[in-house]
Amino acid sequence: MKKIFQIGLLRGIFGQILGMALGYGLVTALQLLSGARLRAEPAWVVGGAFSALGFLIALGAFTDWFRMAKGEEVPEPEDIEEPQDGRRYWGLSYDHKVIGVQYGFLSLFLLVLGGLFGLIFRTELLAPQLQFLSFNLFNTLIGLHGMVLIASILMGIAAVSNYVIPLLIGARDMAFPRLNAFSFWVAVPGALILLWSLALGGFETGWTGYPPLSIRGPMGVQMFFLGVWFVGWSSILGALNLIATILRMRAPGMSMFRMPILAWSVLATSIIALTATQLIGLSFQLVLFERLLGMGFFEPSNGGNPILFQHLFWFYSHPAVYIFVLPGLGIISELLPVFVRKPLFGYKWVAMSSLGIALVGFLVWAHHMFAAGMEEYLRVPFMYSTLLVAVPTGVKFFSWTATIWQGNIRLRVPMLFVLGGIIIFLLGGITGPLLGTVSTNLHLTDTYYVVGHFHATMFGGYVFPFFAALYYWFPKITGRQMSEKLGKWHFWLLFIGFMVMSLGQMRIGMLGMRRRIADYDPAMGFQLPNIIITLAGFMVALSVLILFINLYRSARFGQVATGNVWQSRSPEWQIPSPTPAHNYPAPLRIVGEPYDYAGESQRYVEVDGAVPAAHAAD
Predict the structure, then answer these.
(1) Where are the bilayer-spanning segments (predicted)?
(2) What is the pLDDT of residue 562?
């Protein structure tokens, strides 16, 4: 038993259970003592909040801060000796590399869970009428599929950012290591609370949580709101840390326009996350309070306005699309020069385009509300601002095309996923204007066309680049390379399966099939397309299974990765793999341009006056 409680995650889960029991019992006792009518919902909400605190306290996330508050001296994070075996990944660590791997584990876990939810309700849609799900469970699975995968994406972005960004800019760690650890671990109880919604009646609102349906729905809605609220804190605090790290901890000689392009993308993403995430937290918190305390924010019968919720929600949730895809686009721009052996075309324009997308992304939210009863005179300006996003996005596509042109392309697995991401993100881009233009939006809104377009944007902008990053930096993390053969099976099954699924969704959407509907009329001809889409979804799931097999086999038996396996100019490939405990054994300086693959003799990194033996040509 003692050994079990040495594992931080298990200790935290035990603390979460105790916290839930304490919060639930406290509210119930207060109701009994005051003579008030017993209500379970306040007890569950307070219990949920206490459960997250119980998790973090039992884990030890507050221990150092409590000691500081008492005036005690605590060691610097870099001076704390951590276990060097697998246990460090299951407990509190201040090493950005360990935290990056922890984010990656959580992201992949949530990816599998959200994907399973999707496969379950897609199986229900193989035939008209209900087969094995109730309407409430069908809608709950759709909502959990969406929000769990959004959490998975946020964790995946944090995984890449935490592990790679300090290495790319020559830093020893993140600016605030303790806050970095807290940012990860606060997401874990948040994800568990989100999943508890299934046991408390679920929620019928989809992932958006629109009132008044969410105000009148079952108790599971409250766990949905509370779980997202805690995951939002993880995103906000992580963004703050990344901004401070990028702006203040770059190696000498690394000016802003000598930074790797991925750092620019993560900086733009972090600005959005820091400033916009609070809006979704606020909107969900207001509905939570309205249910608990009877406040009239959004319920029309109490004088509320449900359209206000949509403004608050989408002011975050459309910029959130760029939180999801900007790091992915940065990964594409980061890896492309390595595999075509050419400089990144228009580096400064690509860097500034990330900030441009972040800025314009705050001006487009209301195109989600063209059919919601919004004032008509607002439609046209939001239509134009939505279409304007194509300009900075187009800069990236022109850069990628020019970089590939006449390059010496090496079709390794990371490059396959980069090219797949470009193609699928282009599909998401060219199908977007139909939803940004008022006349076509009113026809297509809330159809499966929106589902197909959104999935193309997410897969092209995040999923394919994330897998590219996983294959590319896996040797740096583990010291072993992943199997190229299994990687190609993973890529082709995923690419073909996704294209069939997404194009099929857009087709039946244009024919009029509504999203979030558990049944459909067989006379409309929707059954065969739904069978094809579902089979394609299982093909995507098979590809992910191959990824996990590849991860396991490669981590244990993969070819040992020695030296600069990709012949990259980037700083992290100038040191041994796996990455040493404190990253760089000697201070490094930036003396050249990051993507000057046209002239291999021109250095980018200089370590303590020596030229790294890693700039060799192919």
Answers:
(1) 12-32, 44-62, 98-121, 141-169, 181-203, 223-249, 261-288, 320-340, 349-370, 382-404, 416-436, 448-474, 486-508, 528-549
(2) 83
